[in-house]
Amino acid sequence: MSTKEIHGLFGDEEVLLTSAKKLVSKGVHVKDVFSPFPIHGIDPVIGVPPTRLHIAGFIYGIVGLCLSLFMMWFTLIMDWPMNIGGKPNFSLLENLPAFVPIAFEMTVFCAAHGMAVTYLIRNTTYPGKKNWNPDLRTTDDKFLIQINLDENSVSGEEIEAILKETGAEEITQK
Fold first, then answer.
1. Is the pTM of this model over 0.70?
2. What is the number of alpha carbons within 13 Å of residue 98 lying toward its C-beta?
3. Helices 53-73 and 92-122, interaxial angle, to 10°?
4. Which residue did the predictor score with more confidence, 135 or 1?
5. Residue extents of the structural domains in the chain
6. Does the pLDDT value for residue 130 go beyond 80?
């Protein structure tokens, strides 16, 4: 099933942002925006919900903390207790000050790597993935707004008129 799309190409991110605001105020649903760098404030304008990656990062950090404490408890207290520097070797709580740096590093390690892997999986970014960018100039210095005509009740001519009025350099219909 092929869908008709309108692509508006812009040379400045502020012009694209004002164009997106005008389109949304007229009832146009913007499918996506492509840019060489993140545009501050575009997500709420085009209706992208806030990410929950920070919640996943917190969970990954807690898992890392628990894994590190379990590893240190098992290896240094249960399995192979050793008296190193006069530290007691029969309780996790008595050794906790010595375990803090290791626990902190493992928490940060698991949170960072877990969030990176979650981000790549969620965005389906993996080696060998085909490029789905509609215009390669958006990876250098241009900004593109993508509008799906099947998702909008506003006609294509009205959308093109709004894009021209708000400063689109190039408008293509595919």
1. yes
2. 15
3. 140
4. 135
5. 5-50+133-173, 53-122
6. yes
